[in-house]
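User: I'm putting together notes for a lab meeting next week and I want to include a structural view of one of the chains we've been expressing. I don't have a solved structure, so I'd like a prediction I can at least talk through. The sequence is below, exactly as it appears in our construct file.
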Amino acid sequence: MVLHLTGSDWAAGSAHASGAALLLGLLLLIALAIRMGDGMGSILNKTRVRQAITSAIIIVVLFIYSGVAFSIQPSLHIAQAHSLENQQQWQPAIDEYTQGGEQAPDGADLARTYTSWGLALNKSQHYNEALTKFDTVIQKFTASSAQSEVHRAQVGDIAARLSLSRQSLDAKDYDGATKSLDTILGIPYCDNTCQTQASALDATAYYNIGEGKLQTQDYESAVNAFDKVLTKFSSAPEAGQLHGDMAKALLGMGKQERSSSCSSAIPTYQRLGKEYGDTNEGKSAQKDLNAPQDITGHFTNIETDVPFNQIGLTTGLKGGMGKDELFAKWDGSKKTNIQDNGNFAFHGISQGNYDLIWYANNGSYEYVEFIYHQVSQEPTYVAEVGPLCPVNMGNVTNVHTV
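Assistant: Thanks for the context. Below is the predicted structure for the 402-residue chain, given as structure tokens.
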């Protein structure tokens, strides 16, 4: 009985007692054999039968005790594991359950201990450590016997993740919060309650990202963050709060796009005018979209004897037109001078398509000319004036096109 208390756990003490009982039994068996041969078995010993039977019973009891003490070790591991689990000594309990033969995927006691450990860590706000315990249960304990514990672990896992997300929000780590919350929303066991909570927090995080990016004039990132709120969390209060700031972000982004690649800014301005026309930014964008534009280019004259010095914008030019008709088009065109270096510029041209025509007067004769494709008879140089962006015609030359 003393040896039962000497092991590192109950099973080890039982093993010690088992070994001692086996050794005592063997020693008694040897002693009995020696004594029987040394006179105890003599017919002159009137108590020989009682002595032999008593010794045999003791030896058998010791052998039985040794076998039983050895065979109950798994049960002792399990019993001690239950005791340790009740004392919330989680890792020792897990060790005992494991030595008792429990393992994934169907060790319900192990799964329960891991889950309870995770929930205790949640309660003490050690959320990352809790997640490792829950993950062990969710990933490894797949048997039906452990499904109730898997469900508990899933609930605890969601609670830990939401708590970590709230911590990120409180610390104004909005990027970290959105990453965590986006992950939560994609987890299969995130139920309706989970979806509602995570969505509300995620909308707040993205809204705050947008506001921060707007303040630092990172307009594209602000627009992207606000769009997340509008598309993924349209029913969140933040979706109704960002209207004015989204207009500011779109206008800021549009201006940046316009300065680097004007055509890329057109969709931004169009969205701003269409969806945020009630804001000052939307009205400004629509005004810019409707505004006339400039047309610039460079004229290269290969006819050295004809001094073309004016260029015009007209419509309806076609190959094979008569002289009078062509001069009439010139007379009705919007004209500008061709500079000595060949550059020309039109200012404030309404949106539309314009054919380019040029003019010369050498004091004796007037010349009007345009270049067209010989097959289609359509003008080669057509200025397409659209919204927002000036038009650069590049090099315009009177080389005939095939």
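A couple of points you could mention at the meeting. The chain has a mean pLDDT of 89. The beta strands are 293-300, 308-314, 334-337, 343-349, 352-361, 366-369, 382-385, 391-397.

User: Perfect, that's what I needed.
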